[in-house]
Amino acid sequence: MIKKRLFIAIISVCAAIPAIAQKNVIDEVIWVVGDEAILRSDVENRRLYMQNEGIRFEGDPYCFIPEQIAVQKIFLSQAKVDSIYADESSVLRSVDRWVNMSINQFGSQEKFEEYMGKKLSQIKENQKRTVRDQMVVEEMQKKIVGDIRLTPSDVRKYFSQLSQDSLPMIPLTVEVEIITMEPKIPIEDIDAIKARLREYTEQINRGEQTFSSLAILYSEDQVTAIRGGKTGFMSKIQMAPEYANAAFSLNDPTRISNIVETEYGFHIIQLIEKRGDRLDSRHILLRPKVSEQEIEQAISRLDTLYTDINAGKITFEEAATYFSADKDTRNNKGLMVNQEMESRNYGTSKFEMQELPQGMGVVIDKMEIGEISKPFRMKNHSDKDVVAIVRLKLRVKAHQANVADDYQALKALVEDRKREEILNEWVISKQKTTFIRIVDGWKDCDFKYPGWIKE
Prior knowledge:
This protein is an alpha+beta fold. The chain is built from 15 helices and 13 strands. Strand 6 (260-262) and strand 7 (265-275) form a beta hairpin. Helix 1 (40-53) packs across helix 2. The N and C termini lie far apart (57 Å).
């Protein structure tokens, strides 16, 4: 199973949108940027998407949207020159997540296809193009911006120039310490899982089934199962260590690995292709089912530890270090670290409430600082059912930012502003050397970048 690391958050834009309207309008080229055309239908589809999603238009949509598309095309054009490409495995994972979420929202694949006016295969292909372009643009922007290095004086100077009304609001954050216990899985349940995986291997070796068909039918990794277990090209650091060791030891695509246990469950793996330090594979994941009895037994064991901590027989930090099943926090005396790379609190011990693991937020919300919770059930980072106790170390109420308490958040804000300035200057410079033509009727706009219209 692949580690749950950051995947770029993709907002689906226009390519996956059905042609809901404008059936009686003849499509036409309205902008040309370099050798790329922007069609009236491109603008209309994106407008419909933004309208349906409640995304605010920055001014006239028939001015704002074509300019937004034009800027994207300039970045894509430079990316071709600089040989910047999207990671296909990340593209596929993003598309699969979006498709799965959409099907769940509509209730069935058939209803989703009916709404989109396309077969699922067409929807996926369109969405892949959109996601791929967005990822390429982001990589191009990273290259343009490079590393932004700010000193504390830079942050303080920026802060001193802001009026009181324009100071950003910092939402409520908490710092949490945790101890977890995993329910004990009966050995006969584990043996049954392994027997199933061995049977799948035998069916593949006998030619009765293909690995991909069995993955589609039985794998419990929902992201890869719909692709026949295919993970896409990954490096070792993107995989669970046990998975990486087994996958990279394979050399023959016709051979199936032995059963591999990771924190996610039990796997069998098939090599597809190796490219240097990256590898594409298929896998089938099975997880033992946790019964309510096993959950209750784990709660009982953890309740004993909870009682000992409150009685002073052992400290919370000692209990976390010696007894917690959470390997990411036990070496940190139980203190949780925010691993959401999209978060302004990434790499710190601060969490906004919605960033806490599933099942924890409702517990933390009712606690006082220093209080230890009773054992409760939650999902851990590998999507396993575990039981936990937590101690609320700190709660900081929502407030306007200040340098003393919110230096990291302000530093991130200044970095964002610097990044925006660099990218704006780059776009303006590119406008001067890029062929641009806008047809009459689409020029009368208050553009963000005035260089589109050349005298």
